[in-house]
Amino acid sequence: MSTFLTPREIVAELDRYIVGQAAAKRAVAVALRNRWRRQQLAPEVRREVTPANIMLIGPTGVGKTEIARRLARLAGAPFVKVEASKFTEVGYVGRDVDSIVRDLVEAALGMVRAERAEKLKVAAQRAAEDRLVDLLLPAAAGAERDESRRSLRRLLRDGALEEREVEMEVAENRTPSLNLFGGQGMETLELNLKEALGGMFQQRSRRRMTVAQARVQLEAEEVERLVDRAEVEREAVQRAQEGGIVFLDEVDKIASRSAASSGPDVSREGVQRDLLPLVEGTTVTTRYGPVSTDHVLFIAAGAFHVAKPSDLIPELQGRFPVRVQLEALSEADLARILSEPEHAIVKQQQALLATEGIELSFTPEAIAELARIAAELNRSAENIGARRLITVVERVMDEISFTAPERGHGPLAVDADDVRRTLAPLLGKEDLARYIL
């Protein structure tokens, strides 16, 4: 889909889910379109064009992660989100940065497998149906057997045998725990050992289950049998290399704020130096083969309240040429976030209550009041952006959600008075509001 979208169309798609932040949307839209442009170039030129990585700077809860996640979904690209603060310099206990690439390949593998499974769904269903008929049909011969099979097949397709029990063989993996390793670079060794030894401990046992349960099991086995594993792995590596998107959150947490770092700051600059070759472009060995990061798009993000982007080492700064300052959310933005996006918080609450037969609605005044209270709490306590809306709405919905099954079907409107009545006791006590809201 994204292959043919212009930057303006990409921004329009992002507008369906994210309020405001036009500059950030423009930056990621251009980056995504440039990826398509690169594919149109001659191979010798294509190799030389690398993505312009992006750094999103702004307070928490303004949409940095959501922009990157929606962009990846729009592009149909493998995507991983990692917190830079979780990594440690080589030589310290913790995760090494190469695990980012391994996670990206695993994400790509999941995407390719799901796509292949969808394409093979009909063939897998037919094969599973044949095996179900074999399980259900007692030994018979000739024309009688053929007629019985046709009858059983019709009954299976009509769903008339879903509760009947069958006995079938099920594979059980009894691989013992292999958590014997620690430190950097050991994830791949552990996975390879599990893969190598898995067959030694896999057993098949006979179990009784309903036809409905057996169908799910058999379809999964048929998909596994029909999918070409080597081809899937090759395509996953290719997608990760050419279309992967890595979102590096909390980059400000690894910025050194002084020349002499000690204590918990000791490995911050080391993490930056470990990240540098990954962002510059290097080759990482994974269980599926070597993976190049030359054309992976890296989107870094951080609040930078204490540290500044200039506190990062110069080499890493230079690898994020596109920098965008995201705006803090205003009261008007919060009101729009409540009701405008495709899956807005209010719409989610309405969908949840609809399962109980309740037609929930929020008056415009109630939405304005929720936004006002959320903005006030962000000013007086910690500013957590749009996340404050979830806390406030859940507090207002608490009694309604609890009593919903007893209310009976019908309309239910939440107005500004309901919002004030629910939240006023807490707003009047600042210390209490700080912990509850």
Written account of the structure:
With 437 residues, this protein is an alpha/beta fold. The chain has 3 domains: 2-111 and 239-325, 3-Layer(aba) Sandwich (Rossmann fold), CATH 3.40.50; 121-226, no CATH class; 331-427, Orthogonal Bundle (Helicase, Ruva Protein, domain 3). It is 55% helix and 14% strand. The chain is built from 18 helices and 11 strands. The longest helix has 22 residues, at 98-119. The two termini are 40 Å apart.
Which spans of ≥5 residues are poorly predicted at pLDDT below 50? 177-185, 259-264
Number of helices: 18
E-strand count: 11
Strands side by side in the biggest sheet: 2-5-8-1-9
Structural class by helix and strand composition: alpha/beta
The total tally of domains equals 3
Query: Mind telling me the CATH superfamily name of the largest domain?
Result: P-loop containing nucleotide triphosphate hydrolases
CATH topology annotation of the largest domain: Rossmann fold
The whole-angstrom Rg is: 27 Å
The sequence of SSEs as H and E is HHHEHEHHHEHEHHEHEEEHEHHEHHEHH
CATH class of the largest domain: Alpha Beta
